[in-house]
Design goal:
By secondary structure, this protein is an all-alpha fold. The protein contains 15 helices and no strands.
Length: 285
């Protein structure tokens, strides 16, 4: 018997929380004003869109999820949700999210939301994930759309500022996920998923984590060009960015499960703190 909790898990709520938070930063950092209720509706649509993509991803990946320790207890491989129900659930949520966004906010935000959902499903899940070690690098674009959607919610436009917010998440995704995949290599081998560390080995993956970490920290400085409290933003961003790079260096030096787990955990904190910093430094306080 399926429960409400099972369908909630289909939405990948932990990813949804980050998606909504980064989208909030796009709304708050954008020039102009928007009614609180419309901002809430936009975030709700983005949350529903994220959940829809997650549900359809779980439907498509149910065969490999069953082969991996990390995912075998998900609702579909565990037998708690019928695959067809998960697909229908995801499709309804996705269509509803895009429709409400188009009707209540603007067409550009709705188009960006639709692109992010379709990119995650067709480009990442169906095309890249099982075919190339660059799956996370290219596929990470799907998770980078939310702040751009938030920006478009307010301005009905795409600007260099929203692209910068997009790029932050785009370059954050590889070191974040590779730190996890290094500790899950056996799972990916069993499921025949060509993760970077499986194809090219742990040593090259750790070097790539450091390279992407440095690029990420450099790009993360760019919002200072358009935020109100730019000096405060720079100071805090340099601090947390330096720690991020130190964790990446420690991953190379230590080559241990613990170092990689700490890198993964800190990367989540880093993204949250960075976008909290963007939000705070956008406010007139």
């Amino acid at each position: 018997m399926s429960t409400v909790l099972d369908f909630w898990q289909l939405l990948k709520p932990r990813i949804m929380y980050l998606v909504v938070f980064t989208a909030s930063a796009g709304i708050i950092a954008a020039p102009g004003n928007i009614h609180f209720f419309l901002a809430f509706v936009s975030l709700l649509c983005i949350a529903l869109g994220s959940g829809a993509a997650g549900a359809i991803n779980m439907w498509y990946d149910r065969d490999i999820d069953l082969l991996m320790k990390r995912t075998r207890n998900r609702p579909i491989p565990a037998g708690r949700v019928v695959p067809d129900n998960a697909l229908e659930f995801g499709m309804v949520l996705g269509i509803l999210a895009v429709f409400i966004m188009a009707v209540s906010i603007n067409y550009l935000a709705a188009i960006l939301l639709a692109v992010s959902i379709l990119f995650y499903i067709f480009i990442y899940t169906i095309w890249l994930k099982r075919r190339t070690p660059q799956n996370i690098v290219i596929g990470g674009a799907a998770g980078a759309f939310p702040p751009m959607i938030g920006w478009a919610t307010v301005t009905n436009s795409i600007s260099i500022e929203s692209v910068i917010l997009f790029l932050i998440i785009f370059f954050w995704t590889p070191p974040h996920f590779w730190a996890l995949s290094l500790n899950q290599s056996e799972d990916y081998i069993n499921a025949s998923i060509p993760m970077f560390n499986v194809v090219y080995g742990p040593a090259k993956t750790r070097k790539q984590i450091l390279i992407y970490s440095i690029l990420l920290v450099c790009i993360s400085l760019l919002p200072a060009l358009f935020l109100k409290k730019n000096l405060l933003y720079l100071a805090l961003t340099v601090l947390i960015g330096s720690i991020f790079i130190l964790y990446a260096v420690f991953v190379i030096i230590s080559k241990s499960y613990t170092a990689q787990k700490k890198m993964f955990s800190y990367s989540i904190f880093y993204l949250f703190f960075l976008f909290a910093n963007i939000i705070f430094c956008s406010l007139n306080l």
